[in-house]
Specification:
single chain; about 350 residues; mainly alpha; 2 domains; 3-stranded antiparallel beta sheet; two-stranded parallel ribbon; 16 helices; about 10% strand
């Protein structure tokens, strides 16, 4: 059995089968999309198998939910129904079973046994019935050509499937997981490959390009104290396409209206060091500001509310506001929900008055 993990799931973040960083992103591999939540579930299941025996280990929906919340600080409900909102968009916090379908699709693509076969609901665990719910067999039936279990594709017929028949399938899957565990692990490690990471943009399948990844890595590898690194980041971002993208939308300082392009600074709202790779390259996380207002915003002396109205720190004497070209009516335009969310982060975490309360 694969021996890559020696410590507990929540004790050692460096030895995950699927990297923690990869688990922050959806992936698209050979037209199979696997969500970040599904990666977390798969990682926890594989971790459990690695530490114990695939023949005897059972994992409940509750186990998965609790441990992922502890490990990734993301709540995935054990048994919530898989629903859509009025616009037909799937809720992000769907059930463990809903995300299991993503894992099953990935397994089927590479002819791996369904590792989700080891997940049972709390109710079934309590009843000493270690058989997955009917949704598992429904998902498995979609791939009769891969797995040869000859399951009925009709849900009514599936429900009539005897426990004996289900147990035989589970025993076969258990054996195949044990016999092919190294192959399963190595295949799931595909999810660690950055070229397959999707920028998490509410269903968008935009993938980070090699140039974008290289740009991020080049900046991440900069040595020096934080103030020097911040200055270099601003310079590099200003030379990148991010500033040009913003200039297409906003041709001036978003606060005072200065239009001299050479004076405008592309400033991250949520700081680079606290941003995900997606957020580092998201133009909605960029404000175009003149040097004075960039310095005030960067150091948390000013921030904004969700409508773009300015908040000015009590540390700035009111008699200096005119010199700084700000007043209580100053504001920026909030052009998207994402921009509003970034501004909210700045207000909560960077604005000096809030940091000191």
């Amino acid at each position: 059995m694969y021996n890559g993990l020696q410590k507990g799931f929540s004790e050692d973040f460096l030895n995950d089968i699927i990297s923690e960083e990869s688990c922050n992103y959806d992936s698209l591999i050979n037209n199979i999309e696997i969500s970040k939540q599904a990666k977390m579930i798969a990682n926890y299941i594989l971790w459990c198998f690695n530490r114990t025996s695939t023949k005897t280990t059972e994992v409940t929906y509750g186990d998965v939910s609790r441990n992922i919340l502890a490990r990734y600080k993301i709540n995935i409900s054990p048994n919530a129904q898989y629903k859509q909102d009025k616009k037909g968009i799937h809720y992000e916090n769907k059930s463990i079973g809903g995300y299991s379908d993503d894992i099953n699709d990935f397994c089927a693509k590479y002819a791996l046994p369904f590792i989700t076969g080891k997940i049972v609901s709390n109710e079934q665990k309590q009843q000493n019935k270690y058989i997955p719910q009917i949704g598992f067999f429904k998902s498995l039936a979609k791939y009769n050509d891969v797995y040869k279990y000859n399951l009925p594709t009709n849900q009514t017929a599936l429900k009539k499937l005897s426990n004996l028949a289900k147990e035989a399938i589970i025993e076969d899957i258990d054996k195949k997981i044990t016999d092919n565990f190294n192959e399963i692990v190595e295949t799931f490690k595909l999810l660690n490959d950055k070229k397959y990471w999707i920028i998490p943009n509410k269903g968008s399948n935009k993938i980070l390009s090699n140039d974008e990844i290289s740009f991020i890595e080049e900046i991440e590898n900069i040595d020096g104290v934080e103030t020097e690194k911040t200055s270099i980041i601003k310079t590099r971002v200003g030379q990148s396409g991010l500033k040009q993208q913003k200039l297409q939308d906003t041709k001036c300082c978003e606060l005072c209206g200065i239009t001299t392009t050479e004076l405008l600074i592309a400033s991250h709202i949520k700081p680079w060091c606290n941003s995900t790779n997606y957020e580092k390259l998201d133009k909605e996380n960029i404000l175009l500001l003149c040097p004075m207002h960039d310095a005030l915003f960067d150091k948390g002396f000013i921030t904004f509310n969700s409508d773009g109205k300015i908040f000015i720190s009590k540390k700035l004497p009111e008699e200096e506001w005119a010199l700084l070209n700000i007043n209580s009516d100053s504001q920026i335009k909030i052009t998207s929900e994402k921009k509003a969310n970034y501004i909210q982060y700045h207000y909560n975490n960077i604005f000096i008055d809030n940091k000191e309360t």
